[in-house]
DNA sequence: ACAAAAGTGTTGCATATACACCCATGG
DNA sequence: CCATGGGTGTATATGCAACACTTTTGT
């Protein structure tokens, strides 16, 4: 292939991460405000351009660090967005990821070289994001709801030593519906995506067992 | 962002499609032989570079047409490959798709501007592909096996008027294992990814009902 | 009439759901 | 001593897997 063919040149790669959390029962997403054109002063999902010398995963880590200060969280790829006009400057492909983290455990930068603000927003109240991030966010929410119990996607929200009632409430917040306590417990334990983590806590009325996510998610192959 | 920043420039997008078929009971993949460097004379999965003015989906269609003559087939995205060194010429991201088609119904071009050959290979016998296509192919096979009954991914293999025994045999070939006839039937009909398609065929000993895939795949949300 | 291919049925096990009940602690 | 929150159990329905039988048709 010809590197200088104008059909191929000037293509860029956006990395986008829908960073979710559950904040006192509210399902939220982290948005940052752009400092520069295009979409100056618009809220968007966390992300930026992928460099030449990095994988999309490493680029995503770097972008999260640069634009929010957040490090050490996992994410899962869920989509690719490729409308040629999704960015006005040049052709930018977007590779989209999803993360769920604990907003209490991170200190989010509100001012960086390229962002003028950062804030957790309730999902329902988000609209009018820059680029095609409204669409990406909608897909991310859908993906999260679908995969919440078939992977360890909540591991960063509850790294360890969490109680089942806590995980239960967070799951209800994310899914936006009530789940039977007892069936939730049975389901989570039977799928083996979590396991006991030793000790008991005394926070509530009655002490509760502590759990942690297993290293690998679960796969169910049919037939 | 700065368009001319060398960190971003010279990035390209590869489109790759793992095109599968079932040929007289054999699970096969379509490979093409490269005419030019890099990986000259190597077999690779069908694909090429995405242009600036097209989505990855439209680019994939164009590439299939150009390199194999195949048109009018659906495909599903299943992965992104981003090792910076996966192509020696420049940084090429790969967006990977999967299709299952009927090799009897297509005329595959063996000579095109950029390919010197094209052939259906049995999956087990494929190795040493150019680029990182060995890895992409392995992931594609895994993805297909996992999603074979939860989507209409086989629709292009059996566009309409297929019998259940036929679909049954093809599924066994793809999964590489025996499936109980009667349970297969019940499963397929209960999930509503297929529906009756009118008339009867008289090919075999006894006439069989005809089916077709429903337009949309099936989604099962838990809770 | 028999073999080969298509269709239908039954039974048992596993999983899911919708419930009720017991235990520990703080006020 | 009771309200709150955490843990366990059970009955029913539903889904899945393993199995046997009937029907049609070509030879």
Polypeptide structure, described:
- Two copies of one chain form a homodimer.
- Chain A is an alpha+beta fold and 223 residues long.
- Chain A folds into two domains: 6-147, Alpha-Beta Complex (Nucleoside Triphosphate Pyrophosphohydrolase); 159-213, Orthogonal Bundle (Arc Repressor Mutant, subunit A).
- In chain A, 23% of the residues lie in helices and 31% in strands.
- The first copy, chain A, is built from four helices and nine strands; from the N terminus they run βββαβββαβααββ.
- Chain A has helices spanning 56-68, 133-147, 164-175, 181-191, and strands spanning 11-23, 26-34, 43-49, 76-81, 91-100, 115-122, 162-163, 194-201, 208-213.
- In chain A, strands 1, 2, 3, 4, 5 and 6 form a six-stranded mixed sheet that branches. Chain A has a three-stranded antiparallel sheet with strand order 7-9-8.
- The longest helix of chain A has 15 residues, at 133-147.
- The model of chain A is unreliable at 218-223 (pLDDT under 50).
- The first copy, chain A, binds a DNA duplex (27 and 27 nucleotides) through α4.
């Amino acid at each position: 292939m010809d590197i200088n063919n104008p059909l191929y040149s000037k293509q860029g790669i956006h990395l986008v991460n829908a960073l979710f959390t559950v904040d006192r029962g509210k399902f939220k997403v982290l948005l940052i405000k752009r400092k520069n054109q295009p979409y100056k002063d618009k809220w968007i999902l966390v992300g930026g351009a992928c460099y030449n010398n990095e994988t999309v995963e490493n680029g995503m880590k770097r972008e999260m660090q640069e634009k929010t200060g957040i490090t050490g969280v996992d994410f899962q790829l869920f989509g690719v967005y490729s409308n040629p006009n999704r960015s006005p400057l040049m052709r930018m492909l977007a590779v989209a990821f999803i993360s769920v983290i604990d907003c209490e455990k991170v200190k989010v930068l509100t001012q960086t070289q390229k962002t003028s603000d950062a804030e957790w927003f309730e999902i329902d109240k988000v609209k009018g994001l820059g680029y095609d991030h409204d669409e990406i966010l909608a897909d991310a929410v859908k993906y999260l709801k679908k995969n919440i119990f078939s992977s360890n996607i909540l591991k960063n929200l509850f790294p360890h030593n969490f109680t089942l009632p806590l995980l239960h409430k967070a799951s209800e917040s994310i899914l936006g519906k009530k789940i039977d306590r007892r069936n939730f417990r049975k389901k989570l334990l039977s799928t083996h995506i979590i396991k006991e983590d030793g000790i008991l806590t005394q926070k509530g009325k009655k002490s509760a067992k502590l759990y942690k996510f297993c290293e690998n998610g679960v796969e169910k192959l049919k037939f």
